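Q: I'm building a small set of examples for a reading group on sequence design. Run inverse folding on the following structure and report the sequence directly after it, with nothing in between.
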């Protein structure tokens, strides 16, 4: 009997833990809005001074655990600050073109179904939140206002609206439009740009921003970053109708600058329409090397997935486009892609490639194939070796021109063939078009470090100045080596840098499995020639 009662109690406990609770009293649906300052959210560095959190609560009822009245539509809009007794329903009707739909789904927590929505804001004004639990064609059944008038320096703002077509077999899978772009009184929008987030060079985004929200250092940093992204070809260009045609899901950033030089960066995620299937495809390839060097290699490509392949593409790449680091190839797979049949096919090429396969739910896989003039690294590099240093190749006169941890830089900033070789200057330091002013390492909070942390990420901060007024897109690199001179990580920023500006870049260095021996910063014109454009800066931890 005791055993039987124990089983009943255990079953009741499992049921109670898995099923929503019923309540003794009905709780009516409600809408509430809370105003939070950035610092109250626990962020030391924040891009927005205020966050508005709206909670659309469906309430509860005694007749069942699932309420009959659920919010079927939620939205918000901003207008110039209203008088205290303004008719909000009339204000909504007069400003419907400024309405922003809240697309988050209801979630069960705290005893009822709720939609929680956080809105970072940059402008003063009256923010109105609206909710519907029945007919959405008329006035909202719930409406709340919040007046914000404490932002000292107003920032421009806008919203990115996505439309996902759900067909991943097409070249364009979604579109984006910029809505409700606004700025403060007496200002105009000077420029704006939409950028695909994962295409940003790893480590180039400033994760540690100054704690003071409105300051010249922030604006200068974002201005130069925006210029770098646009000049590097990372901007998504609109068509003649002003719509942005998108090839990829993921995160996008919208840079906005007003007539007073104040910047805002809006980040928004283009999600897949269905999250039921999350397993990416499996890519299989087989390489046939020709007997003659004058003939291309053949790469037979197939892909398999549990729900079906939507498309397979490939892109010609070189080591100059994708370094061998922990950042992964998906961050770089890019714009000039070439289609293969979804059932697979054979590629004839003498270049290295990256293959991308996408399933019918939008999950993507990437595989890199190195062939042609970029063989896999060996212990004996020859004249065809990659300019990116490898874990096994010891640099000689004909191999990697990238600085290694064991090679002393010469006066030109290029490494000598070995640690014992005499420096061979190729030109005078004053002839270099760039000057690296400093290289230091910092914590993620911006505090200076004397040595890299064990099993933790940190920032490598580089200051740079272009000394000559020449128009060219050049690379600034930060390379991390272990104590034996083996490359552990490499990041870069490429841009047509403006002369006589003091640039400052923060490169994020991920946790390393080997002890870091040194970090170097240097400037090249491109990967293939590896022409030094500055003296190399180095920090040694040996």
């Amino acid at each position: 009997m005791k055993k039987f009662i124990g089983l009943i109690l255990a079953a009741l406990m499992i049921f109670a833990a898995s099923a929503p609770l019923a309540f003794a009293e009905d709780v009516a649906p409600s809408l509430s809005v809370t105003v939070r300052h950035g610092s109250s959210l626990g962020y030391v560095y924040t891009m927005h001074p205020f966050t508005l959190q709206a909670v659309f609560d469906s309430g509860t009822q005694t007749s069942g655990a699932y309420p009959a009245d659920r919010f079927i539509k939620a939205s918000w809009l901003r207008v110039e600050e209203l008088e205290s007794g303004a008719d909000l329903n009339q204000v909504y009707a007069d400003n419907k073109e400024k309405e922003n739909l809240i697309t988050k789904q209801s979630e069960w927590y705290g005893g009822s179904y709720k939609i929680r929505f956080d809105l970072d804001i940059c402008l003063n004004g009256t923010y109105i939140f609206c909710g519907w639990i029945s007919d959405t064609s008329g006035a909202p059944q719930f409406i709340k206002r919040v007046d914000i008038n404490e932002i000292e320096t107003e920032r421009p703002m806008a919203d990115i609206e996505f439309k996902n077509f759900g067909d991943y077999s097409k070249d364009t899978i979604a579109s984006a439009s910029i809505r409700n772009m606004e700025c403060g009184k007496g200002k105009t929008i000077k420029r704006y740009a939409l950028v695909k987030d994962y295409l940003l060079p790893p480590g180039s985004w400033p994760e540690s921003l100054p704690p003071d929200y409105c300051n010249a250092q922030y604006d200068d940093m974002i201005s130069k970053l925006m210029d770098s992204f646009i000049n590097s070809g990372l901007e998504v260009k609109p068509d003649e109708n002003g719509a942005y045609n998108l090839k990829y899901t993921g995160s996008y950033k919208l840079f906005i600058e007003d007539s007073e030089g104040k910047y805002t960066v809006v980040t928004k995620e283009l999600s897949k329409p269905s999250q039921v299937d999350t397993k990416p495809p499996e890519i299989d390839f087989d390489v046939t090397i020709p007997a003659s060097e004058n003939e291309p290699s053949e790469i037979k490509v197939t892909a398999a997935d549990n729900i079906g392949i939507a498309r397979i593409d490939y892109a010609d790449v070189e080591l100059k486009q994708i370094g061998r680091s922990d950042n992964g190839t998906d961050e770089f797979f890019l714009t000039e892609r070439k289609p293969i049949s979804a059932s697979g096919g054979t590629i004839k090429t003498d270049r290295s490639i990256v293959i991308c396969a996408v399933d019918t739910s939008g999950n993507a896989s990437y595989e890199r194939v190195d062939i042609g003039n970029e063989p896999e690294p060996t212990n004996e590099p020859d004249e065809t070796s990659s300019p990116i240093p490898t874990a096994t190749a010891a640099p000689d006169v004909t191999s990697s021109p990238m600085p290694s941890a064991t090679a002393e830089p010469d006066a030109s900033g290029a490494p000598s063939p070995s640690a014992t070789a005499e420096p061979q200057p190729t030109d005078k330091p004053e002839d270099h078009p760039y000057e690296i002013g400093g290289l230091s390492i910092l914590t993620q909070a911006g505090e200076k470090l004397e040595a890299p942390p064990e099993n933790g990420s940190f920032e490598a901060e580089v200051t740079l100045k272009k000394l000559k007024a020449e128009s060219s897109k050049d690379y600034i690199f930060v390379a991390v080596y272990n104590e034996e001179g083996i490359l552990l990580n490499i990041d870069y920023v490429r841009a047509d840098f403006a002369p006589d500006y003091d640039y400052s870049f923060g490169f994020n260095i991920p946790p390393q499995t080997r002890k870091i021996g040194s970090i170097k910063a240097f400037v090249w014109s491109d990967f293939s020639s590896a022409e030094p454009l500055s003296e190399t800066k180095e920090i040694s931890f040996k």
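The chain has four domains: 25-148, 157-270, 282-369, 429-540.
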